[in-house]
């Protein structure tokens, strides 16, 4: 009895401390998102390493607190949320500093790491007292795909199914969808078919395989439900076992235990527990947000992939346009005050292309950025490389010199190339016909764990995200 009371008290105390830190501006929850492979894991790993080394041999001149020597140090401390996996920082470093160096392994789902930053304030009074201040910084990694599910909250099962039916009129999608559209007996599914657990599990599995094929074969991101391809800890749960109803709809009200009614209930459970649950448990607690965008891979992949990325980004942005609907504000009351858009992997292009790359990013996020501004959120666009894997230089071809980047391919071959010109705007149809792009993936450079890693403008990101907190 006393034990439980003690535990409760300590939990309360903990909460109170957390609240005090927050009021004194000493706690910041910084969320990092972006579509799969946009560079979230690399970004967080690099950021933590840079912060840990900042006061020793930091390479962060664009971050005032570091340049002025006010940052005294940073260290990892246990993160505070027992239900969220801890970000696999050590594992990431292990890969980066291995021989040969490799990128951190892909992760799925949400993860978090906490840092304690100690700094000297610039505030004249507190500075005079020699005060050292502390900022607890939580970095939270979560898949941007989860934000794509937001519009589902406004749809019922019937409406969502209708939407998918329309998408399936696109021939490329219809071809991939054929395998899940017929029963094991080769017939279309009927709404009044009695529900069978095993049968539906297999159907959902085939639907999930279709979503994976859309992603892998067509390079699409706008996939719903988003959790089917990135289930996190919910793999195999019944609320991840349903499909849109793309067959003849039911006549009248379907029976409780019919296939149609069961799928409809699971759709509602998915919305409530996973979509709404994510916004309540995580999103509502974020103070600042970074959205990473890999603009280069879709430029390589072609017009369809680029259009899909553009649409996905627009949809991700809807989560930051709170004002549009009151229910949204009421339900989640988010408090984000700064939003940073990042064109990641800028080391894939030659330095004079960084300008066009930022410009392209600005065009991509333009509309959502306007909405965020309207909500009082400060926004910024940057092109950066969390971990620089190339050197800028010059190459020769046909007796002419050209700007080039140099590095090592993932397979270990030396590469020297001019990847191409980044369009400064959303590319037109004509651009796609003339385009000659070659954005190659590079292996990380051989680096020492005892030195800060090479990067491009990671310090500019830090200045935007933390500058005012370390005043
Ligand atoms: N050259 C370069 N490649 C990067 C950088 N960041 C990410 N990448 C590449 O993008 C891949 C996906 O990055 P990752 O951080 O795992 O993406 P996530 O799925 O968003 O966590 C990596 O395996 C790297 O190949 C960077 O700063 N420079
Ligand atoms: Mg990741």
What does this entry show, briefly?
By secondary structure, the chain is an alpha/beta fold. It has helices at residues 2-23, 40-57, 64-67, 89-96, 124-128, 157-167, 171-177, 197-218, 259-281, 296-301, 303-318, 326-332, 354-374, 429-434, 458-466; strands at residues 27-34, 71-77, 111-120, 132-141, 288-293, 338-343, 378-383, 391-397, 400-408, 414-417. It has three domains: 25-142 and 282-388 and 447-470, 3-Layer(aba) Sandwich (Rossmann fold), CATH 3.40.50.300; 152-279, no CATH class; 391-434, no CATH class.
Describe the protein's architecture and organization.
By secondary structure, this protein is α/β, with parallel strands linked by helices. The protein folds into three domains: 25-142 and 282-388 and 447-470, Rossmann fold, CATH 3.40.50; 152-279, no CATH class; 391-434, no CATH class. The chain has 15 helices and ten strands. The chain has a seven-stranded mixed beta sheet with strand order 2-3-4-1-5-6-7. A hairpin with a 5-residue loop joins strand 9 (400-408) and strand 10. Helix 7 runs antiparallel to helix 8 and helix 11 packs parallel to helix 13. It is globular. Magnesium ion binds next to helix 2.
What is the class of the largest domain in the CATH system? Answer: Alpha Beta
* End-to-end C-alpha gap: 46 Å
Fraction of residues in H or I helices: 25-40%
Roughly how many Å is the radius of gyration? Answer: 24 Å
CATH architectural label of the largest domain = 3-Layer(aba) Sandwich
Integer count of domains:
3
Reported for the largest beta sheet, the result is:
7 strands, mixed
Beta-sheet strand percentage?
15-25%
Shape call:
globular
Number of helical segments with 4 or more residues: 15
**Cross-sheet strand order for the largest sheet:** 2-3-4-1-5-6-7
Number of strands: 10
Low-confidence parts lasting 5 or more residues at pLDDT below 50?
A: none
Bound molecules: guanosine-5'-diphosphate, magnesium ion
């Amino acid at each position: 009895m006393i034990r439980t009371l003690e535990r409760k008290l300590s939990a309360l105390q903990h909460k109170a401390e957390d609240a005090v830190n927050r009021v004194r501006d000493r706690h910041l929850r910084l969320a990092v998102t972006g579509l799969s492979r946009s560079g979230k894991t690399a970004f967080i790993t690099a950021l933590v390493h840079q912060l840990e080394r900042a006061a020793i041999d930091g390479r962060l001149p664009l971050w005032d607190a570091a340049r002025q020597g006010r940052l005294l140090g940073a260290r990892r401390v246990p993160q505070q949320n027992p239900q969220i996996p801890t970000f696999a920082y050590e594992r990431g470093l292990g890969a980066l500093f291995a021989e040969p160096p490799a990128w951190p392994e892909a992760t799925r789902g949400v993860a978090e790491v906490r840092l304690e930053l100690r700094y000297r304030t610039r505030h004249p009074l507190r500075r005079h007292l020699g005060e050292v201040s502390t900022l607890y910084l939580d970095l939270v990694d979560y898949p941007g795909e989860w934000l794509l599910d937001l519009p589902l909250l406004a749809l019922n099962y019937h409406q969502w199914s209708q939407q998918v039916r329309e998408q399936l009129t696109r021939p490329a999608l219809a071809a991939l969808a054929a395998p899940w559209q017929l029963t094991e007996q080769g017939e279309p599914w009927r709404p009044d078919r009695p529900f069978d657990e095993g049968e539906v599990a297999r159907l959902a599995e085939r639907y999930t395989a279709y979503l994976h094929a859309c992603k892998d074969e067509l390079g699409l991101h706008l996939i719903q439900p988003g959790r089917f391809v990135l289930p996190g800890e919910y793999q195999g749960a019944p609320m991840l076992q349903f499909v849109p109803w793309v067959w003849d709809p039911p006549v009248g009200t379907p029976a409780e235990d019919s296939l149609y009614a069961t799928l409809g209930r699971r759709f509602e459970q998915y919305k409530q527990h996973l979509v709404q649950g994510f916004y309540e448990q995580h999103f509502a607690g974020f103070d600042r947000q970074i959205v990473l965008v890999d603009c280069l891979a879709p430029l390589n992949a072609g017009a369809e992939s680029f259009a899909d990325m553009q649409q996905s980004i627009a949809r991700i942005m809807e989560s930051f346009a709170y004002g549009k609907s009151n229910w949204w504000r009421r339900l989640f009351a988010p408090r984000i005050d700064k939003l940073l858009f990042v064109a990641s992997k800028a080391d894939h292009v030659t330095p004079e292309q960084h300008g066009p790359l930022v410009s392209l990013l600005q065009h991509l996020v333009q509309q959502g950025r306007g909405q965020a501004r309207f909500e009082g959120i400060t926004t910024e666009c940057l092109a950066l490389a969390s971990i620089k894997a190339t050197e800028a230089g010059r190459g020769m071809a046909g007796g002419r010199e050209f700007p080039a980047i140099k590095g090592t391919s993932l397979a270990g071959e030396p590469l020297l190339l001019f990847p191409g010109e980044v369009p400064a705007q959303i590319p037109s149809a004509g651009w796609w016909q003339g385009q000659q792009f070659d954005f190659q993936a590079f292996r990380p450079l051989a680096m020492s764990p005892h030195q800060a890693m090479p990067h491009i403008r990671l310090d500019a990101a830090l200045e935007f995200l933390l500058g005012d907190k370390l005043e």
